[in-house]
Amino acid sequence: MKKIIVSMVCLSLLAGCASMKSANPVEKKDLAEESSVVVVRPNRYTLLGTQSVRDYLEVLYEELSVNPAGYPIVRVGVRNKGGEHWWDLRGPDFTLYAQAVFYRDPVAGTDVRSAPLYRTNKQPVPMQRGETSDLVFVAPVKGAGGYQVIFSEN
Q1: Which CATH number fits domain 24-152: 3.40.50.450, 2.60.40.3230, 2.60.40.10, 1.10.10.10?
Q2: In percent, how much of the chain has pLDDT > 70?
């Protein structure tokens, strides 16, 4: 009986370890292709394509400015555009998580990134079908010339 319990524990531990992903470095060409607004971690894959927030999220605008105190502000407008394909009549409501990372230099189109000056906390943004959200991120550090806004599903 003890052997069965020990083998069950070992199998469950091995199964958990098999789901781990290695943290490989990003290649320079992939890093250079990233824009200032990215969507990561798709939720589900199907035979007809991915059903992640990438299919339903539309970025309306993005801008970097400086407030009167000299701190950088990033404003991003996003919209849940609903169903992307003709067979998807409704489109889901979902919660989006948004985070901004501020850099000294612009990040779009470059393969070298400096260390982040400031990283905001993840903010949950509930998105109903057809709804538009205006997101504002403020960094309490001066001198940011670039940013990257990261959207994820969890």
Answers
A1: 2.60.40.3230
A2: 60
